[in-house]
Amino acid sequence: MGRSPCCDGKAGVIVKKGPWTPEEDKLLVDYIQEKGQGSWRRLPKLAGLNRCGKSCRLRWTNYLRPDIKRGRFTDDEEKLIIHLHSLLGNKWSSIATKLPGRTDNEIKNYWNTHLRKKLLGMGIDPVTHRPRTDLSLLAGLPGLLAAAGNFGGSGEATGGWDMSALKLHVDAARFQLLQGLVCALTTAAAPSPAPGMNNLTALLAVGNGGQHGGFDQNMLLQQCQWDDMNDLPALTSSAPTSSMFDGISTGDGLSSTELRGHGGATGRNLIVDPMVAGDQECNNNGCSGGGVVLCEETPASSPYFEGLESLNLMDGGWKDLLE
DNA sequence: AACCGAAGCAACCGCCCACGA
DNA sequence: ATCGTGGGCGGTTGCTTCGGT
After folding, report:
1. How does pLDDT run across A111-149, given as a tens digit for each residue?
2. What are the residue boundaries of the HTH myb-type domain, all occurrences included (predicted)?
3. A54: Cβ under 7 Å from strand B?
């Protein structure tokens, strides 16, 4: 059962659309302050506005309401939005109830223009809040993680990577990811690790601690706690971060069964495979799949790695991205 | 200074739900 | 139980501003 659009107006009456003028704003504010909100459908006529009621309601709730907080979102607000979105999804009005003075429309816009890109840049899927699994973003990881084997604080861990050249040849999201990884690799020996470094060092330590030829899941999980996003690095910072590993190791639903070690004894050639975890490990605890597997060697039958091979990006071949 | 593409954001659109007659 | 209405919501559009060339 449909319903007639509220903004059609009566026959022959064309209601105004588009940006509100200061005069219209004043009419609306004056009326509501004097009479209260009441019926939005009747309000335009009573207030002397040639607008539909819906338009009046939106203008009031999103812009004219006296308790609206304008200006930039604070870091705390930003983190809260991300956290609430991971729990509620696109329930903007529900999210807005937790941020006094912010409207659902404002939060929605901020999400779409800022936070969504921010999460993408961190390698996190903004819909699922899990690590991204698209090949274009993850394609360079095998080579980079393999290069982690060179890590030893010698200062040459970047292997001569030319980041400025890299920036010219890869998309922004991938560059940010690679930048974070390089930073992590080159600063891991610093006395005070940057945010997210614990995760990388844990990863390396676990990967290299191959006495048993596998990962210590407990150690990995213990060191990779996201701690309620308190350590979430700002991507706008001039200092690159290893935020990718924050994403991988987030406590947002990843269980110990989803972080699973595989084969190999060398501890080198660490590989992130988004394709393996889902069906096997995740089904055990009822999660919906899409988890992350940290491998030491290339699994033979993963569609992810088959895809990488087809792109010629395996075994450090990410450098082929450079022309 | 002019142009152009990207980014940001206010506002609109259309669907859905709750509620009362 | 059905229908009409009002209000709310999420998605999308398009105008404005900004930044780079």
Report:
1. 888 888 888 777 777 777 776 655 444 444 444 444 433
2. 12-64, 65-119
3. yes
Contacts of A41 (CB under 8 A, 6+ apart): A6, A53
Q: What is the pLDDT of residues A149-202, one digit of tens each?
A: 333 333 333 334 444 545 554 555 555 555 555 444 443 333 233 333 333 333
CATH H-level superfamily of A75-121: Homeodomain-like (1.10.10.60)
A17 touches strand B (CB under 7 A): yes
Rounded CA gap, A281 and A258, in Å?
6
Residue A193: helix, strand or coil by DSSP? Answer: coil
Q: Work out the angle at residue A79's Cα, subtended by the Cα atoms of residues A98 and A282, and round it to the nearest 5 degrees.
A: 100
A50: Cβ–Cβ under 8 A, 6 or more apart, which residues?
A15, A16, A44
Taking the whole predicted model, whether its pTM rises above 0.70 is answered as no
CA of A112, C1' of B6: distance in angstroms? 14
DSSP, res A73: P
